[in-house]
From TrEMBL:
The keyword Transferase applies. It comes from Uabimicrobium amorphum. Residues 41-141 form the Histidine kinase/HSP90-like ATPase domain. Keywords: Kinase, Serine/threonine-protein kinase, Transferase. GO terms for molecular function: protein serine/threonine kinase activity. The keyword Kinase applies. This is Anti-sigma factor. Gene3D superfamilies: Histidine kinase-like ATPase, C-terminal domain.
Length: 163
């Protein structure tokens, strides 16, 4: 999966939008709202809920802590977009941004013990597309709806990769 560095297209109808102060206490209620909408629309099974929650936690914490430096005067915006076949979440902060190229590759033996970069690896393994834009101050994650067969196939492939 490739990380793209330009502004992505908008995917579908915006079904949720929130603009919030940079307060970590607001993270879990926001994630719960997003998961609830995706679940209601049939995008998530129990495994997907865990993975989606991890990815959402990663981008929201990054916006609050790294982008806005936990400054409560700064806002971050989150939008959820859906079509029949896919969902996307966009998170934008008021920070200076970053380059994903500067994040160490946690799969590389030299940087295996680094604290940074694991979130991008996690997102690359679950999401179908990741877009960083506005100099890295904005991110959009996109995932296609999976058929039951595809979900089973992906679980088998993960199992085989582990062995």
């Amino acid at each position: 999966m490739e990380i793209r560095k330009q502004e992505p297209p908008e995917y579908g109808e915006r079904v949720l939008y929130k603009e919030l102060e940079s307060n970590l206490a607001l993270k879990n209620p926001l994630i719960n709202d997003i998961i609830s909408v995706l679940d209601d629309q049939g995008f998530l099974d129990e495994d997907d809920k865990i993975w989606a929650r991890l990815c959402l936690d990663e981008v929201i914490v990054n916006a609050i802590k790294h982008g806005n430096k936990e400054c409560k005067d700064k806002q971050f915006r989150t939008g959820l977009y859906v079509t029949e076949k896919q969902w996307a979440v966009r998170v934008e902060d008021e920070g200076e941004g970053f380059s994903p190229d500067d994040v160490p590759d946690v799969e590389d033996e030299e940087t295996l013990g680094y604290d940074h970069g694991r979130g991008i690896l996690l997102m690359k393994n679950y999401m179908d597309e990741i877009w960083y834009f506005n100099n890295g101050a904005s991110v959009q994650l996109m995932r296609y709806k999976r058929s039951k067969f595809r979900k089973l196939l992906e679980k088998i492939l993960v199992f085989l990769k582990i062995k």
